Amino acid sequence: MSQPHLRTVVVLAAGEGKRMKSDLPKVLHPMLGRTLIGHVLTAAAPVGAERTVVVVGHRAEQVREHLSEVAPQATPVLQERQLGTGHAVRIALEAVPDATGTVVVLNGDVPLLRAETVAALVEAHEGAGAAATVLAAAVPDPTGLGRIVRDGAGRLERIVEERDATPAQRELREINAGIYAFDLVRLREALGKLSTDNDQGEEYLTDVFELFASAGEPVAVHVAADHTETLGCNDRVELAGLRRLLRDRVNEAWMRTGVTVLDPATTWIDVTATVERDAVIDQNTQLQGATVVGAGALVGPDTTLIDTTVGEGASVVRSHAVGAEVGPQATVGPYAYLRPESRLGRKAKVGTFVETKKATIGEGSKVPHLSYVGDATIGEHSNIGAATVFVNYDGVSKHHTTIGSHARTGADNMFVAPVEVGDGAYTAAGSVIIADVPPGAMAVARGQQRNVDGWVLRKRAGTAAAEAARRAREGASDSGATASEGD
Ligand code: UD1
Ligand code: CA
């Protein structure tokens, strides 16, 4: 039984998807980390196909370009006019003239299909030695879909499109998911015999089943246990519905591995993201792309992480991060923006209203408040004062700032790059640092303060400020008496 099978995968993706009303081809619409066709190709992976052929047509260039990124091994085949699913498969098989064995055909717009289901379909098909096997499901609402017509003994007779169906056939709830396994050689032969004698004047792939059945070739139905896997996507309302189903499926899977998802209805985890045990994902949170959340980390609420790594026990609260690395036990937010190449070491802190970009913030170092850190390296255990700006851009080029370890920089500093502050150095509040500060020095780079005594009393006489100043002065002159009264 376990002799190797030659296998081919064909994905149908030439249609326009008119009801999406989109400039983007339907199969390129994104859904939790992959495009629709990306999900389908992933589900087809366990087939282990020698060749994968994707039938493209509508906006073929865009689809080709996407395929070159996500499935470079796939061969795109152009179907210039969409003359039906049978026509599409016929063209696809012309690209693999020597292929034999099993061919798995998938609609490009059925993104919830599970890899295990495809594997089970192929196994059932090959195990039974069938000429054709269709994936079917009993659905609550079969509107618009092809129906599985069985004979008195429950054997597949034919698949009929809704528009070609009799009223009695329309009552059938068992539908064709648009996913099939065929014996390739027999399919190639049958495709040559398809007619266009139907309501749409198209070559229907589904008619192959009737051809086989009436010729006594074995055909089979493989029923999907979870009918949601077979749902297609025709408009954006359906797309939103599929996205919700996938969200729930993904959240449930993570919860079963030991992740706490506080509000699954508002937590959107891409299929490409990873969350480790005992992490807590709070509400309104999106984990996108190659994001990894480490064990015991807290992310959210109201947080979006894109291609970001969060270390064990770290926390990221009400923040947005793209291409960032947050070290173990580091803390981010509330309200931080980590841009690409932000790297926070263990126990580092990026606090409230802080933006970072191309910045390495070493172990235990803190940027707690209201700051911009761009093109910078900060050593370990340093503290950056509130409202600091790393002035990295001279209007033409970007320059780098280096702050050493155990430094203490004052509030409201400007570090005008390129500049370097040494280990253990201090800078005074309000300084504009334009020259390097040696290790251990205190840099003061601001105007000397000058108090013009009595200016308000003279220049703003009669104002509330002058009155307040006068009272303060009188109070000060007899403060000794007041204090001795024990107030
Ligand atoms: C098809 C099936 C129907 C099934 C449904 C499941 C046929 C005749 N009908 O119907 O029984 O219930 O899928 O979703 O097959 N495509 C091409 N070239 C073409 C025509 C279609 O590449 O010439 C592609 C489309 O882009 C799409 C897929 O094939 O990805 C299915 O085509 P679609 O027009 O949506 O078929 P349905 O009418 O939905
Ligand atoms: Ca369809």
Plain-language structure description:
Its EC number is 2.7.7.23, 2.3.1.157. The active site is at 369 (proton acceptor). With 487 residues, this protein is an alpha/beta fold. It folds into three domains: 7-230, Spore Coat Polysaccharide Biosynthesis Protein SpsA, Chain A (Alpha-Beta Complex); 259-443, UDP N-Acetylglucosamine Acyltransferase, domain 1, CATH 2.160.10; 456-481, no CATH class. It is 22% helix and 29% strand. The chain has eleven helices and 39 strands. The strands form eight sheets. Strands 13, 14, 16, 17, 19, 20, 22, 23, 25, 26, 28, 30, 33 and 36 form a 14-stranded parallel sheet that branches. The model is unreliable at 481-487 (pLDDT under 50). Calcium ion binds at residues 232, 234.
Short description:
It contains eleven helices and 39 strands.
Tell me the CATH superfamily of the largest domain: Spore Coat Polysaccharide Biosynthesis Protein SpsA, Chain A
How many H/I helical runs?
11
DSSP strand tally: 39
Strand count, sense and barrel status of the largest sheet are: 14 strands, parallel
Named CATH topology of the largest domain: Spore Coat Polysaccharide Biosynthesis Protein SpsA, Chain A
Uncertain parts: 481-487
Approximately how much helix is present in the residues? Answer: 10-25%
Rg, alpha carbons: 33 Å
- What shape does the CA trace take? elongated
Average predicted local confidence, pLDDT: 96
The set of bound ligands, ions and cofactors reads: uridine-diphosphate-N-acetylglucosamine, calcium ion
Classification by helices and strands? alpha/beta
Q: What's the CATH class of the largest domain, please?
A: Alpha Beta
